[in-house]
Amino acid sequence: MELPQSIDRDGVKLIEQHGFDLSPRQAEQMLNLGVLYRDWNAKINVVSRKDIDQLYVRHVLHSLLISRYVTFESGQQVLDIGCGGGFPGIPLAILFPDVQFDLVDSRGKKILVVNEVAAALGLENANGIHARVEELKTEYDAAITRAVAPISTLLSWTRKNLKGPIYALKGGDLKDEIIAAPNHFTIDLYPLSEETDLPFFETKYVMLASKQ
After folding, report:
1. What is the tally of structural domains in the chain?
2. Separation CA 182–CA 194 (nearest Å)
3. What residues have CB less than 8 Å from 43, skipping those under 6 apart?
4. Is there a domain that residue 1 lies in?
5. How do residues 21-54 score in pLDDT, each as one tens digit?
6. Could you tell me if residue 157 is inside a domain?
7. What secondary structure does DSSP assign to 174-210, as a single string?
8. Residue 192: inside a domain
9. Rg of the chain taking only CA atoms, in angstroms
10. Whole-angstrom Cα distance, residue 158 to residue 163?
């Protein structure tokens, strides 16, 4: 693995400047994310090519900001729905080493990247699963996701095996999506612009869907 670059070190500083108190091990893992994802992006289109130099803002910090609205408890099992190359699950698995994250995607190449990145980082609490969400049998305490599907669809996919809420990273105008959500769920919207003044987050939200 190549050595981290200045953009990786700046990325870790950015995370710490946003109030995330990283242990030395967590800081090292965060530092190595840039190296690993640049390497994999050269082989497989894990994230947008134009985004790779903005990995820490648009993918890592974006993922971590979910934790402003939830504190996962030790021993919990969390489902990452449609994880792609590992977001938001991989950064959150670094932040919460005592929580089990199952990252699920129907695209095998993406899950290959997830498991290889997790292994390279020594993340024993992040497990990539090649499957459709509806096929899963495990019961989860909560779910996380990013820009995968409308909240009504996510709730339908997980209705049989999700005990707790869904925390979904969303962007843009979400009025119609909220209106279409099932009536027996409460939908709360939290603007990430309240957590950071970075322009990327001006129209980004955490959508929380919980049973009434």
Report:
1. 1
2. 27
3. none
4. no
5. 999 999 999 999 999 999 999 898 888 877 888 9
6. yes
7. -HHHHHTS-TTEEEEEEEGGGT---GGGTTEEEEEEE
8. yes
9. 16
10. 9
